[in-house]
# Entry
Amino acid sequence: MIKQSVSVDKLIETARHCLKEGFVYPVLHTAVDYETHLELIYILRNLEQGDDRILSVILDANAPSVPSLTPWIPGLIFQEREVYDLFGVSYDHHPHLTRLLLPDKFRGHPLRKHYTLAEGEVTS
# Structure
Protein backbone atom coordinates (compact mmCIF):
# COMPACT_ATOMS: atom_id res chain seq x y z
CA MET A 1 0.00 0.00 0.00
CA ILE A 2 1.42 3.36 -1.06
CA LYS A 3 0.16 6.71 0.20
CA GLN A 4 0.75 9.57 -2.18
CA SER A 5 0.20 13.28 -1.46
CA VAL A 6 -1.26 15.00 -4.50
CA SER A 7 -1.91 18.67 -5.23
CA VAL A 8 -5.36 19.66 -6.48
CA ASP A 9 -3.99 20.58 -9.90
CA LYS A 10 -2.35 17.13 -10.30
CA LEU A 11 -5.28 15.05 -9.00
CA ILE A 12 -6.76 14.08 -12.38
CA GLU A 13 -3.36 13.29 -13.87
CA THR A 14 -2.41 11.16 -10.85
CA ALA A 15 -5.74 9.33 -10.79
CA ARG A 16 -5.47 8.54 -14.50
CA HIS A 17 -1.96 7.20 -13.90
CA CYS A 18 -3.30 4.98 -11.09
CA LEU A 19 -5.98 3.66 -13.46
CA LYS A 20 -3.32 2.76 -16.03
CA GLU A 21 -1.50 0.83 -13.29
CA GLY A 22 -4.67 -1.17 -12.58
CA PHE A 23 -5.96 0.73 -9.52
CA VAL A 24 -9.51 0.85 -10.84
CA TYR A 25 -11.75 0.02 -7.87
CA PRO A 26 -12.69 2.91 -5.52
CA VAL A 27 -12.61 1.28 -2.07
CA LEU A 28 -13.14 4.51 -0.12
CA HIS A 29 -13.38 8.25 -0.54
CA THR A 30 -13.78 10.49 2.49
CA ALA A 31 -12.55 13.69 4.10
CA VAL A 32 -10.98 14.68 7.40
CA ASP A 33 -11.53 18.16 8.84
CA TYR A 34 -8.43 19.53 10.60
CA GLU A 35 -10.08 22.97 11.05
CA THR A 36 -7.30 24.79 9.15
CA HIS A 37 -7.63 22.51 6.13
CA LEU A 38 -9.44 19.45 4.84
CA GLU A 39 -7.75 16.27 3.70
CA LEU A 40 -9.47 14.26 0.99
CA ILE A 41 -8.58 10.59 0.95
CA TYR A 42 -9.09 8.24 -1.99
CA ILE A 43 -8.29 4.54 -1.69
CA LEU A 44 -8.07 2.79 -5.05
CA ARG A 45 -7.55 -0.97 -5.36
CA ASN A 46 -5.81 -3.03 -7.98
CA LEU A 47 -8.05 -6.10 -7.94
CA GLU A 48 -5.57 -8.29 -9.82
CA GLN A 49 -2.69 -7.60 -7.42
CA GLY A 50 -4.77 -7.05 -4.28
CA ASP A 51 -2.87 -3.84 -3.59
CA ASP A 52 -4.18 -0.40 -2.63
CA ARG A 53 -3.08 3.11 -3.53
CA ILE A 54 -4.02 5.98 -1.21
CA LEU A 55 -4.25 9.47 -2.66
CA SER A 56 -4.29 12.38 -0.21
CA VAL A 57 -5.28 15.91 -1.26
CA ILE A 58 -5.12 18.95 1.04
CA LEU A 59 -7.85 21.58 0.54
CA ASP A 60 -8.47 25.05 1.92
CA ALA A 61 -11.01 24.69 4.74
CA ASN A 62 -12.78 27.92 3.73
CA ALA A 63 -13.36 27.01 0.06
CA PRO A 64 -12.86 23.27 -0.40
CA SER A 65 -13.01 22.49 -4.10
CA VAL A 66 -11.51 19.76 -6.26
CA PRO A 67 -12.12 18.34 -9.73
CA SER A 68 -14.54 15.42 -9.83
CA LEU A 69 -12.98 12.08 -10.70
CA THR A 70 -16.31 10.53 -11.75
CA PRO A 71 -15.59 10.89 -15.51
CA TRP A 72 -12.66 8.47 -15.02
CA ILE A 73 -13.88 6.50 -11.99
CA PRO A 74 -17.69 6.30 -12.20
CA GLY A 75 -17.86 4.38 -8.91
CA LEU A 76 -17.04 7.63 -7.09
CA ILE A 77 -20.28 9.35 -8.09
CA PHE A 78 -22.08 8.63 -4.79
CA GLN A 79 -18.95 8.86 -2.63
CA GLU A 80 -18.26 12.39 -3.91
CA ARG A 81 -21.89 13.34 -3.25
CA GLU A 82 -21.59 12.02 0.32
CA VAL A 83 -18.43 14.06 0.99
CA TYR A 84 -20.13 17.13 -0.53
CA ASP A 85 -23.19 16.59 1.68
CA LEU A 86 -21.36 16.01 4.96
CA PHE A 87 -18.17 18.09 4.54
CA GLY A 88 -19.12 20.72 1.93
CA VAL A 89 -16.44 19.83 -0.61
CA SER A 90 -17.36 21.08 -4.08
CA TYR A 91 -16.52 18.75 -6.99
CA ASP A 92 -16.02 20.65 -10.23
CA HIS A 93 -17.80 19.04 -13.21
CA HIS A 94 -19.58 16.41 -11.11
CA PRO A 95 -22.56 15.17 -13.15
CA HIS A 96 -25.10 15.41 -10.29
CA LEU A 97 -23.66 17.19 -7.24
CA THR A 98 -26.62 17.28 -4.85
CA ARG A 99 -27.12 16.18 -1.28
CA LEU A 100 -27.14 12.42 -0.85
CA LEU A 101 -28.12 11.76 2.78
CA LEU A 102 -29.61 14.98 4.11
CA PRO A 103 -32.70 16.91 2.95
CA ASP A 104 -32.12 19.45 0.17
CA LYS A 105 -33.07 22.30 2.51
CA PHE A 106 -30.63 21.22 5.23
CA ARG A 107 -28.16 24.00 6.02
CA GLY A 108 -24.51 23.32 6.71
CA HIS A 109 -22.32 20.26 6.59
CA PRO A 110 -22.52 18.27 9.84
CA LEU A 111 -19.10 16.58 9.78
CA ARG A 112 -17.26 19.91 9.72
CA LYS A 113 -15.66 20.87 13.04
CA HIS A 114 -17.26 24.34 13.05
CA TYR A 115 -20.79 22.95 12.50
CA THR A 116 -23.42 23.73 15.15
CA LEU A 117 -26.78 22.02 15.66
CA ALA A 118 -28.71 25.26 15.14
CA GLU A 119 -27.03 25.64 11.75
CA GLY A 120 -28.55 22.40 10.51
CA GLU A 121 -32.18 23.35 11.00
CA VAL A 122 -34.20 22.56 7.92
CA THR A 123 -35.82 25.66 6.46
CA SER A 124 -39.26 25.57 4.90
Observations:
- The chain has two helices and six strands.
- The first strand starts at residue 2 and ends at 6.
- The CA atoms of residues 85 and 102 lie 7 Å apart.
